[in-house]
Write a structure and sequence with these properties.
about 160 residues
Length: about 160
Amino acid sequence: MMGCIYYKDAPGSQKNTVPVYIDTLVKASGQVGTLLGQIVFGYLADRLGRKKMYGVELMIIVVCTCASAISGNLVSGFSIFTVLGIWRIFLGFGIGGDYPLSAIITSEFATTKRRGAMMAAVFAMQGFGILAAATVAIVFLAIFKYAVQSNVDNLGKD
């Protein structure tokens, strides 16, 4: 969709396609943030407390998700892809913190009898979340299919 909005006038085979180097940087930015978040939040949780850091990383996830969703050409000289990449680094940082903290908190507060099932549920929900996000995107594209096909500019109303 980003290619249809921002690269609709590109020449030849590049039309409606985000260049590979931009696409790769936007995708990799979240992974870089996740790696850093796991290391930093793992350390801080041991030093400052798990519950406290869990609240901090959840707020980072909420704020950065909203900021990613409304990213645009906000600053002169930064494209939407740059702004989105920056927000995705911070979002990945929060998500990276969520990985170790959600597992630790679940294992600490679950009863011995239910601990294995609770840990399995924590990690299984990640897959269900990814599936739900993809399903919502497909449903909305199906709902607005004819509006998009009639005018691709309907993807990015300013």
